[in-house]
Amino acid sequence: MSALLEVSGLAKHYPVKKGIILQKQVGAVRAVDGVSFTLQRGETLALVGESGCGKSTTARLVLRLIEPSAGTVRFDGQDVTRLDDGGMRSLRRRMQIVFQDPYASLNPRLTVGDAIAEPMAVHGIGNDASRRAKVQELLALVGLRPFHAERYPHEFSGGQRQRIGIARALAVEPDLVVCDEPVSALDVSIQAQVVNLMKDLQARLGLSYLFIAHDLAVVKHMADRIAVMYLGAMMEVGTKAELFARPRHPYTRALLSAIPHPDPSLRGSVTPLGGDVPSPLAVPPGCRFHTRCPFAQERCRSEAPELREIAPGQQVACHFSESLPEVASAQVGGLSAVAARRLALYDAARRKAA
Ligand SMILES: Nc1ncnc2c1ncn2[C@@H]1O[C@H](COP(=O)(O)OP(=O)(O)OP(=O)(O)O)[C@@H](O)[C@H]1O
Ligand code: SF4
Ligand SMILES: [Mg+2]
Description:
Elements: E1 5-18, E2 24-39, E3 44-48, H1 55-62, E4 70-75, E5 78-79, H2 85-92, E6 95-98, H3 102-105, H4 112-122, H5 128-141, H6 158-170, E7 176-180, H7 188-205, E8 208-212, H8 216-222, E9 225-230, E10 233-239, H9 240-245, H10 250-256, H11 298-302, E11 308-311, E12 314-316, H12 329-332, H13 337-353
Parallel strand pairs: 3-8, 3-9, 6-7, 7-8
Antiparallel strand pairs: 1-2, 1-4, 4-5, 9-10, 10-12, 11-12
Helix pairs in contact: 4-5, 4-6, 5-6, 6-7, 7-13
């Protein structure tokens, strides 16, 4: 069976214009600059990378909330980027989004019941009575109570609001749920409950998740595969197990590094990431990571590496990924001390919540 989602060469460039009358284009923000990945049915692909690397823009392109500058998005075999309004309407029902801040996306004047029923009304699903029944079913599904339907968003906690956001996304029975940092704004113990819920719903409903996160502790629990973005482009894509155990791209290594190794002779082969991310207005030529890469060589400054398969299911965009020094897995397979602490906290909370 083909993948549920196939993204190929996807780009979003925002023109930068100058001059009040002539509005001459003087440059472009390359927010997303040619990304490709696939998502299988029932799978969770995590999209990770530093702030501003283009994760949310990718999400919005996939859902066609914004138009791409180049590339294609195929959903269940159909090219989303070429559909007309009618075709898009029926496809929208099958692709939903959960935002980081559900409060911002919930109308404060609608009761929770009406907010959850709204997408069904928009898509012409059922009548008032059947929608009310469905709202009750959804509230139960996400762990809320029947009377919550009559309440307003401000009466709920952050975790409960995210449950409402999830119920609203599930109301139209989608196949794909794009989750843009869905637990980033929540306390660790609440994060664990919401992550548990999302995993449970995935198993029960066969959902596919495109899961955007910057917290590797959360990603480690949620993801089947991980796609690492840097400055609008894909650096590495692989299974969670491979990527955590043997990251092949210097940027992935840097992201995952580094609990200082107890043996000093093993220290130092992973250099923590220094410097700032360059502006997407001035993407460095060649390998876009070369300005921060501890392994950069002359070739990296002029020739952009393609994302290529170096092992089954593992793709890397680096000229030298095969010849990089081996590093002790404790150095890169580990999480940063902060992330490791969070993960421990998170595990404990998760067990308690289960
Ligand atoms: N409408 C726009 N016009 C111009 N630039 C934009 C626009 N939207 C996003 N950008 C820029 O594109 C880049 C990618 O933004 P995006 O929101 O996709 O990043 P992100 O990975 O989701 O970051 P974060 O982790 O902070 O949410 C950023 O540099 C951002 O400033
Ligand atoms: S291509 Fe060169 S600069 Fe880019 S990640 Fe690989 S070694 Fe570093
Ligand atoms: Mg974002």
